């Protein structure tokens, strides 16, 4: 929970607009209570058994995730994954390289299968 509290601190200080935090599912109610106490918008995705991904931050960033409408990061398109990485503040150049690599792999699979 120390990392989660630090993420709240970073958001409140304006260091990040959107945060992705992975936590044990058993922390769900505590996380929700803390975020609601601070008036921070959030979205929670259930992950592998016993894990949750908590997105929280600026209401417009959370709204974008709601509009994408996926319930798991595994269901994001390559473009949605790229956009999410940029929104989370990941290195732009590395996100571009990741997108190019993943696109090339997807195209190769598509060519093999038909």
UniProtKB/TrEMBL annotation:
<dbReference type="InterPro" id="IPR018594">
    <property type="entry name" value="DUF2023"/>
</dbReference>
<dbReference type="Pfam" id="PF09633">
    <property type="entry name" value="DUF2023"/>
</dbReference>
<feature type="domain" description="DUF2023">
    <location>
        <begin position="2"/>
        <end position="102"/>
    </location>
</feature>
<protein>
    <recommendedName>
        <fullName>DUF2023 domain-containing protein</fullName>
    </recommendedName>
</protein>
<dbReference type="InterPro" id="IPR036780">
    <property type="entry name" value="PG1857-like_sf"/>
</dbReference>
């Amino acid at each position: 929970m120390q990392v989660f509290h630090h993420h709240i601190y970073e958001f409140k200080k304006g260091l990040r607009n959107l945060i992705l935090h992975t936590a044990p599912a058993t922390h769900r109610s505590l996380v929700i209570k803390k975020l609601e106490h601070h008036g921070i918008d959030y979205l929670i995705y259930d992950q592998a058994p016993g894990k949750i991904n908590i997105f929280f931050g600026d209401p417009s960033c959370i709204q974008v995730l709601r509009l994408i409408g996926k319930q798991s990061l595994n269901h994001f398109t390559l473009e949605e994954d790229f956009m999410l990485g940029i929104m989370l503040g990941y290195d732009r150049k590395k996100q571009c390289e990741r997108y190019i690599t993943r696109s090339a792999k997807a195209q190769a699979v598509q060519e093999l299968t038909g």
